[in-house]
Design goal:
By secondary structure, the chain is an alpha/beta fold. The chain has two domains: 9-145 and 185-260, Spore Coat Polysaccharide Biosynthesis Protein SpsA, Chain A (Alpha-Beta Complex), CATH 3.90.550; 146-183, no CATH class. The chain is built from eight helices and ten strands. The protein has helices spanning 35-44, 59-67, 87-102, 121-132, 150-153, 196-201, 206-209, 228-239; strands spanning 9-14, 29-30, 33-34, 51-55, 108-111, 139-144, 155-158, 164-167, 186-195, 212-216. A six-stranded mixed beta sheet has the order 4-1-5-9-6-10, with helices on both faces. A two-stranded antiparallel ribbon has the order 2-3. Strand 2 (29-30) and strand 3 form a beta hairpin. The radius of gyration is 20 Å and the shape is globular. It starts with 8 loop residues before the first strand and ends in a 23-residue tail after the last helix. The relative contact order is 0.18.
């Protein structure tokens, strides 16, 4: 990626149809829109995104995505849709498919998981600019500061001491106040932006195989939905105004909690 020409960025939205923690979560309504539609709209509001594709093994999810402006041009092969399928080959397959169809290479890939809908397009654009101007980086990912610091409070039972608690992080030894523990940032999954060349050679662990910079976002945005509790919690956060989704029109009667849509 260089600044001499506009980088081509492919956004990829992975939406497997076999969720066990919350069946049907990718198309479950969240404030008047299927969950996957929030990621589609975030990409559409990010000028730096050249194209956004949905990779799914479910025709139902593909149809819902298309109905809300999404591009679902293929169904993911079954071997890339198992419970234990790593994300690396899924993203690489989408990249290779898009490049083969268009006959043009991409410079970067932006991974947008539907279960993290609280995105701000301006932050995605900022990540794209940072990657374009930092040749040494393989990627820019979202990070945030959690509401608790595990270095200070993280513990685990010690079998050698009859299950007595011991510190999980040795660096927390002697720390008695939260303020003395130092800042702790976590990878939150809101977005991952990688150079296309990095995606092409990625084998398994993006963190261990590349060099990345973190773009810090508020912890309230760093929300990932894995079960019904978390789905209802993000509904409450949106309703309380603690999470703002810029593509939702507050005056639109469709923008109501999902409980009212059932």
């Amino acid at each position: 990626m260089t600044t001499s020409t506009t980088p081509r960025v492919l956004a990829v939205i992975p939406a497997r149809g076999g969720s066990k923690g919350l069946p049907g979560k990718n198309i479950r309504p969240l404030w008047g829109l299927p969950l996957i539609a929030h990621s589609i709209r975030a990409a559409a509001l990010t000028p730096e995104v050249t194209r956004c594709v949905v990779t799914t093994d479910s025709e139902q999810i593909a149809q819902v995505a298309r109905a809300h402006g999404g591009d679902a041009p293929f169904l993911r092969p079954a071997e890339l849709a198992a419970d234990d399928t790593p994300m690396a080959p899924v993203v690489r397959h989408a990249l290779e498919w898009a490049e083969h169809e268009e006959g043009v290479a991409y410079d970067a890939v932006l991974l947008l998981d539907p279960t993290s809908p609280a995105r701000v397009p301006a932050q995605l654009a900022d990540a794209a600019r940072r990657l374009a101007t930092a040749p040494a980086l393989d990627g820019v990912i979202s990070v945030s500061e959690p509401t608790f610091n595990p270095v200070w409070v993280g513990v685990r039972p010690d079998d050698a001491r009859d299950g007595a608690l011991t510190r999980f992080f040795p660096s927390g030894t002697g720390v008695t106040r939260r303020q003395d523990a130092g800042r702790f940032l976590r990878i939150n999954g809101n977005f991952y932006l990688w150079r296309a060349d990095f995606v092409r050679r990625l084998e398994a662990s993006w963190f261990d195989e590349g060099t990345h910079e973190g773009l810090e976002i508020p912890e309230a945005q760093a929300f990932s939905i894995d079960d019904d509790y978390e789905f209802r919690l993000i509904e409450a956060l949106i309703g309380a105004g603690l999470i703002t989704l810029p593509w939702l029109d507050a005056t639109d009667p469709r923008a109501v909690p999902t409980e009212d849509l059932r």
